[in-house]
Design a protein that fits this description.
Layout lengths: L24 H15 L14 E5 L3 E7 L8 E6 L2 E8 L18 E8 L10 E5 L2 E7 L16
Antiparallel strand pairs: 1-2, 2-7, 3-4, 4-5, 6-7
Length: 158
């Protein structure tokens, strides 16, 4: 067995991929290829065009999430925590000042977006802090305290 057979790289892409275990894998790849050719690289046609790019970092005491939201203000963004899932949601609205404009190409995206991040259990919503400046949202949350593990003695059954 060669080392090359253990590396899960796809043939067409340079990113790590799962092996195709189901019978519709080739059909899925063909459909993906058709959509990639149709969109021609225009980001407005991709479903993640409005999803903000993020950085998630951590220290010993807290987790920090930074999201780029260019052109948005605090009133356009909502941050919620429900069932240990942090959701960043908002809407980028188009300006309505167009009187005699004839567009040749438009690459700016408008519409609703959201990102959901599953967080470790035990984070309290009241301890989360969020701030926004220059189109960058910064969410800081304290790390939960580690769970207390207790050893349970095993006895012989009678």
């Amino acid at each position: 067995m060669s080392l090359r057979s253990l590396i899960p790289f796809g043939r067409e892409r340079t990113r790590l991929t799962r092996p195709d275990f189901h019978s519709f894998a080739s059909l899925q790849r063909a459909i993906d290829r058709v959509f990639e050719e149709f969109t021609g690289g225009f980001p407005a046609f991709t479903p993640t065009a409005l999803a903000p790019t993020m950085d998630v970092s951590e220290t010993d005491k807290e987790i920090e999430i930074t999201a780029e939201l260019p052109g948005l203000e605090e009133k356009d963004v909502e941050v919620t925590l429900e069932d240990d899932v942090l959701v960043i949601r908002g809407e980028k609205k188009a300006e309505k000042e167009e009187t005699d404009k004839n567009y040749r190409i438009t690459e700016r995206s408008y519409g609703s977006f959201y990102r959901a991040l599953e967080l470790p259990r035990g984070i309290e919503a009241k301890d989360i802090k969020a701030s926004m400046a220059n189109g960058v949202l910064k969410v800081t949350l304290p790390k939960p305290k580690p769970a207390n593990a207790r050893k349970i003695d095993i006895t012989a059954a009678a």
